[in-house]
């Protein structure tokens, strides 16, 4: 049965989102996946943005209307090595008692206080003499204290054979401070974990020869974005594929969730950002999705996209070679 | 980033260089036998076995400065000479062309098809030289061996590594502007129509499955683009229809190449980060260059074969003006060996660099005869 998309504006003149004030960047965004991290601080009337340029990453704060306030550049920690290493990701980890800013590179993992002012921890990755470029696929789990630099590597999870591309977590239903987790890798495989005193592998979702660049977890639904432009929605507990969306014409670079309303954002190298609404059928609990909005960012190979508020009424986008963060807000 | 990027970068940039030189040799009415000799000499140097061996070793990409030095050497592998301004323009065109090709590749793996397009054309230039043809076929075989086995994920990383190399380059190229593949701000046009990559479905469909894996419902949505299914996959064999047009020769005598310098790369901050690289970094680059260029085996021209100067511009005056008006942030400072402290250790490189007389200052316009003699003396 084929049904036409009945939701959404029929008149192309009525738009759901409009371009808002852009935030200038000191350096253009690099062509990496998930190359935008956003930390929402509504209590302080601030939003923090993190973008990787290459050898440096920029962390900046902006007011609700997009006026930039402060900015900082971060680099990979000095060390022995051949050439200036590049940062692979900058990401805020929101934990129950604190927020850490994490910077990753082939040299290691650097953790900072949330504004990037102080490095609290550095974990070197053994790459040997030659930068082999082959990542082991290990997932490192760190114990983070509520305060201070006493961070300890507590577990190494084996579940992947190829480099990890993305990790998503969600507070597990009914249990405080305990999260469920999904990890994705270069071969397109996904692992779903339940946390506890140790992490347990719940289920493994095999790949199909295409990298999975981005993954999100929401209410037992795993959303995965792939290099062939598809978004897949899986049942987290069983790993069953419920929905397959031919969403984009090029590789997906980022997925993001607005958890309050179950809105999913997908962005890809085809210049498009799409917004979807996830839900469960009241009859049988099956995962459902509808397309809400499509945004074409002309001539821009999008490399990062994130919602800027938990209700999904605004989002921001970065693109390769672009020296600004584009912002979109609901009309 | 990927340690398998250099061969692809080098071969494709080299291919573009040959397209441009071929076009200028014909535009400047250089006699056929001389033109053929130049291309043959350059191709022979490019595909030299020792050089290829070094190239294919897994290694990180080095800076644009280091790479530019190799192409300077390569362009001077024969009886042809180029002034600094022409060499700058040549390098600008090469890099913007390959940047465009990488950006527009439908699949990351298609960069291999682009490389094969370049190699196919290179074989066209040396049809009557079986030895060099064999060298190129050998490189083809090596490419297939190395890249035939790697995953889609690794190709994605290679693509990202290449794009990192080309980040912030926005030189406007007249052919691209005319063909509307580049905007007036130097950014490339990314079309949202046409065939999807091989292995990708046309966007617009949502399929729903039950717990048994059976499809139960299909919904369409408005994607916003205008895509169609891919017709055919390009061939990765030694001979075959590549399907992809990226990497084929877009120049011809009737389409001269100009670059516009004004309005290029407004972002000075990101570019200056490259030119103030610390010294320890420069040392590694010098070692890399020594290894690579040591394998180049460039023969010095012996005998009375007269050389000539190629101009990438239409007149000498234009070339001079370009040299004087090139924006600061776009200058390719060729690595100055005197600046490093390890000159003694790099004896081999010092010898090679000594042979490589790239004029740091733009030449003042003299009569053509004087120029030639002066250049011959420097060999």
From TrEMBL, chain A:
<feature type="domain" description="WD repeat-containing protein 54 beta-propeller">
    <location>
        <begin position="16"/>
        <end position="331"/>
    </location>
</feature>
<keyword id="KW-0853">WD repeat</keyword>
<feature type="repeat" description="WD">
    <location>
        <begin position="245"/>
        <end position="279"/>
    </location>
</feature>
<dbReference type="InterPro" id="IPR001680">
    <property type="entry name" value="WD40_rpt"/>
</dbReference>
<protein>
    <submittedName>
        <fullName>WD repeat-containing protein 54 isoform X4</fullName>
    </submittedName>
</protein>
<dbReference type="InterPro" id="IPR049546">
    <property type="entry name" value="WDR54_beta_prop"/>
</dbReference>
<dbReference type="InterPro" id="IPR015943">
    <property type="entry name" value="WD40/YVTN_repeat-like_dom_sf"/>
</dbReference>
<dbReference type="InterPro" id="IPR036322">
    <property type="entry name" value="WD40_repeat_dom_sf"/>
</dbReference>
<dbReference type="Pfam" id="PF21031">
    <property type="entry name" value="WDR54"/>
</dbReference>
From TrEMBL, chain B:
<dbReference type="GO" id="GO:0005886">
    <property type="term" value="C:plasma membrane"/>
</dbReference>
<dbReference type="InterPro" id="IPR019332">
    <property type="entry name" value="OSCP1"/>
</dbReference>
<dbReference type="Pfam" id="PF10188">
    <property type="entry name" value="Oscp1"/>
</dbReference>
<dbReference type="GO" id="GO:0005737">
    <property type="term" value="C:cytoplasm"/>
</dbReference>
<protein>
    <submittedName>
        <fullName>Protein OSCP1 isoform 1</fullName>
    </submittedName>
</protein>
